Amino acid sequence: MTSGLVVIDKPAGITSHDVVARVRKIFKTRRVGHAGTLDPMATGLLIIGIESGTKALSFISNASKKYSATIRLGAATVTDDAQGEQISFTDASHLTDEEIRRGLHAMIGEIEQVPARVSAIKVNGERAYAKVRAGEDVELKPRRIKIYSLEVQDIFRAGPFVEVDITVECSSGTYIRSIARDLGNTLGVGGHLTALRRTESSGFTESDAHELDTAFKGLIPLRTALVKFMPEVKVSSEQVALVERGQRLPWIYGDATDAVAVIGPDDALLAIGEHVIENDVPKLGYHSVFIGGAK
C-alpha cells in the first residue's frame, strides 16, 4: 500500500480540502489528510499525508512555518484579507516607513493573538467562518503564539494605500491575516492581506513541493520525511516485537524530546515515540506504532 507524505504547492482559488479530494483520486485511497490549512487565497506548501503518513500530520502541524505576504494598509475587511467585504477605509498615505516597521517589530516574540474571525475555529460547536457568514458577531479568544522573525522586504505607496511586503517565521496557530489586521489597528488605518504564500513548513521548502498534477511523483517515504523534524532512535531486533506490542522500553536515548522516530535494525520505521515517565522511571512511549514497519 502506498503511504508517506506529499508536499503540494497549493494554487490560489481552491481550499485545502479541495487539494485533499484531488490527492485521494490520484492515490486511489480515502485515507488522506493535510497539515496546516491554507486559505483559498493563499498559495504554497501544503503537506499531505497518505495512508500511514496521516499519523505524522499532528507533529507536522505543530512545527514552525515561514510565509511571504503583502499587507495593504488603509482598509479593513470582514475576513482580514482581500476576499472579504471592505468594512472601513482610512487614508494611510501619511504613514512613514519607520512607523510601519516599528508596528511590525512590536509583534515579534511570544504574544497573545486574536485569530481571524473567518477561521475554522469552533465556537459553540460551529465553525467561526460559518457564524460570520450567517451574519453573527463572533468574538474569538486570544491565543498564545510565537513570531520568531518578521521582516519588511518592501514598502510602496498606491494613492491612499500603503502596501507592505513581509516575510514571517512563526509557530503553529499563527494567523498572518491577524498580523495585517493588528498592524492596521495599531496604526489607526485598518489593514488586510492581499497575498500570502507559505514558503517553508516542518523542514520542507519550496524545492520539495509538487504541483497537483505531478503529486504522485512527489511521494516521500514516511521515515525520510520524519527526520526533517524529529530525531531517530534505534532499537535492537529483540526489541522490535516489544515495540509492536506497545511495550515501553527504558529511555536510554539522551535528552527528553517531544517526539522521536523509532527505527528497527532493518531501517524500517516502527513507531513515532515519545519520552514518558512511568513510576518515576523515564521510558520510551508511543504515539503511533506501525506493525511490520513503514519505510
- Portion of residues within helices: 10-25%
* Class per helix and strand makeup: alpha+beta
Number of strands: 18
Calculate Rg over CA atoms. Answer: 22 Å
User: Roughly what is the average pLDDT, rounded to an integer?
Assistant: 91
For the biggest sheet, the summary is: 9 strands, mixed
Counting DSSP H or I runs of 4 or more residues, the number of helices is: 7
Shape: elongated
Order of helices and strands: EHEEHEEEHEEEHEEHEEHEHEEEE
Measured distance between first and last alpha carbons: 11 Å
Fraction in beta strands: 35-45%
Q: Would you identify the regions where 5 or more consecutive residues have pLDDT less than 50? A: none
Report on this structure.
The protein is α+β, with helices and mostly antiparallel strands and 295 residues long. 19% of the residues lie in helices and 39% in strands. Strand 10 and strand 11 form a beta hairpin. The longest helix is centred in the first third of the chain and has 12 residues. It starts with a strand and ends with a strand.
Primary descriptors:
alpha+beta, 295 residues, single chain, 5-stranded mixed beta sheet
